[in-house]
Amino acid sequence: MMRQRTDGVIKAIYEMGIVPDDIDMDELRADVEELREEYYDVPFSQIHLGEAVHRLFQIAHAHRIQIPTNLTLVGKALLTLEGMIEKLDPELSIVKIAEPFGRELLKQRYHPKQMAEQVYDQLQDLRKAMLNIPHNVEQLTSITKKGHIPIEVTMPKLDMFLKKMDRISNRLSFSIVLLSFSIIMVGLIIGSALGGQASLLWNVPAVEIGFLVASLMFVWLLYSIFRSGRF
């Protein structure tokens, strides 16, 4: 950030956390540019490291980038430590304290011996990958000859969508049965009123029977829907 490299800051954010596939890169770049401008004219010794890291994490969370818990705790610890140091000695900066250690760390990281070891390890990994190429090609050829190529499709939100559709269908069923119950009861009551007497089927009151059957169906549907826990 002090080197005025927005792309470097964005790369650091990518390496810190899990970035969603649908992230708006233009908006992320604009937020990082704004943060970088805040520290454009600030001397290195006057930078509040904890606050800068906290602001960087805020940008990451605003763009739904998941930062590991341990890094979040480090940011909070830096913020707390800077507050304590400022109370003890306002002229003292945590950056000044950490600067010698940072320089020593950079010397170790970019020491020719260390870099040679890293190159050697990478060459070993490359050698192993190249040795595995014939075996992988043979496996792919065998699978292709059999005519069965496994394809794994991952839809993280499919289960949530199906549950939501299930709730909608249950509520729709509830509404339809409630409407049917109302229509049946209104029809029976109107028929009884127009006939001038209670409607009888085989000497049994039809209104009461219809009301009882519809009520039982209504209660059963309610029970089944609420029991499923998807209402």
UniProtKB/TrEMBL annotation:
InterPro entries from the entry?
Answer: UbiB_kinase
Which segments cross the bilayer? Answer: 172-194, 200-223
Q: Name one GO molecular function term.
A: monooxygenase activity
Q: Does the keyword Glycoprotein apply?
A: no
List the keywords (alphabetical): Membrane, Monooxygenase, Oxidoreductase, Transmembrane, Transmembrane helix, Ubiquinone
Family stated for the protein in its record: Belongs to the protein kinase superfamily. ADCK protein kinase family.
- The protein, known as: Ubiquinone biosynthesis monooxygenase UbiB
Upper taxonomic classification of the species? Answer: Bacteria, Bacillati, Bacillota, Bacilli, Bacillales
